[in-house]
Amino acid sequence: MSDNNAVYIGNKSIMNYVLAVITQFNTQGAKEVKIKARGKAISRAVDVAEMVRNRFLTDVKVKEINIGTDKIENEDGKVVNVSTIEIVLTR
Amino acid sequence: MSDNNAVYIGNKSIMNYVLAVITQFNTQGAKEVKIKARGKAISRAVDVAEMVRNRFLTDVKVKEINIGTDKIENEDGKVVNVSTIEIVLTR
């Protein structure tokens, strides 16, 4: 779920990812944490960023948000485009 | 769906919104178009921005992306937080 200051949003509950972000800032002393997601998980990435900032770490700011498109192979082996987001939080 | 250079993402098909953005740039001569969405529609807002930029108006750039939280009243009259996104495209 998280490595080198990045938290990848999947299908777990949002609180899992909120805690992962808080852990990176508080326990691992990160100055910057990147929340990354693709496709439908993009909305949850924004939820996580907003929940961290509004309820837990009110001094954390959004430094930058990047969107993009990845090409992935779906179950049928077809290459499809999927949107991506990266929300960079900083302290 | 769209007013004063803003396109609000709802439940229609993505192409509706892609066309709305293209119309604002091409027909109404807008220099800037804002794609706005809340909750689960946030992922579709990113899809629309990426589809416009990759397939239709390749000179359009992402100027800025803002996220936030709105407080809305749900069907039971309870006030809940919902995430928001605003993607500012520019030419």
From TrEMBL, chains A, B:
- Which UniProt keywords are listed? Chromosome, Cytoplasm, DNA condensation, DNA-binding
InterPro entries in the cross-refs:
Alba-like_dom_sf, DNA/RNA-bd_Alba, DNA/RNA-bd_Alba-like
Q: Name one GO cellular component term.
A: cytoplasm
Biological process (GO), any one: chromosome condensation
Ranges for domain DNA/RNA-binding protein Alba-like: 5-68
Domain of life, per lineage? Archaea
The record's principal subcellular location, in a coarse class, is: cytoplasm
Any one Gene Ontology molecular-function term assigned to this protein's record: double-stranded DNA binding
- Pfam families (alphabetical): Alba
Q: Where in the cell is it found?
A: Cytoplasm; Chromosome
**Protein's job:** Binds double-stranded DNA tightly but without sequence specificity. Involved in DNA compaction.
The UniProt entry, under HAMAP family, shows: AlbA
- Family membership, please give it: Belongs to the histone-like Alba family.
UniProt name for this protein: DNA/RNA-binding protein Alba
Query: What organism does this protein naturally occur in?
Result: Methanotorris igneus (strain DSM 5666 / JCM 11834 / Kol 5)
The gene coding this protein: albA
